[in-house]
Amino acid sequence: MNTPTLIGSLIFAAVLLVLVTWLIQLMMRGWRNRAARQAELIGTLPPVPDTVGAVTAPSLRGLYVGCTLSPRWHDRVAVGDLGYRTRAVVTGYPEGIMVQRSGAHPIWIPRERLIAIRTERGMVGKAVPTANHDGAILAIRWRLPSGTEIDTGFRADNRDSYPQWIEEAR
């Protein structure tokens, strides 16, 4: 490699590095701005109760997909750690639903704030194709203390209990 080619390659690499860094900063700024815009809509989440009754719906292990503002299933909530995907366990109790997420705060959905539980084929950038075109994501719609309705998405490793969860919501 001759000197002019080496210098040209180094300049190109430096420009590319600056461009990638700038794009990452723009994405981070966009996420922070989204969180600031949504902060008032979301408010504070309901506190996790100290005690709960017996389990009413079987625990589901799987992937917490995220929360979206209802009914816009592409409008991911960016406040706190609600927008981050993680492994989770969802359990139903007479008082509500507990979403225990690994590496994040648990989410408590009080029974009186629950609006509906349904299945969806996709949510916040997570689309799961299935052979019989049924929903692979359990979407829990509920009302926050601020009055805003959100959908909490969860994709279970084993979806055999989805019908029981949907019936439990009724």
Please explain how this structure is put together:
InterPro entries: PH_bac. Residues 42-169 form the PH domain. This is Transporter. Pfam families: bPH_11. The structure is a single chain. With 170 residues, the chain is an alpha+beta fold. 28% of the residues lie in helices and 34% in strands. It has helices at 3-42, 162-169; strands spanning 57-69, 86-93, 96-101, 107-110, 114-120, 122-123, 126-127, 137-143, 149-156. The protein has a 7-stranded antiparallel sheet with strand order 4-3-2-1-9-8-5, covered by helices on one side. The protein has a two-stranded antiparallel sheet with strand order 6-7. Strand 6 and strand 7 (126-127) form a beta hairpin. It is elongated, with a radius of gyration of 21 Å. The relative contact order is 0.18. The model has no long low-confidence stretch (mean pLDDT 85).
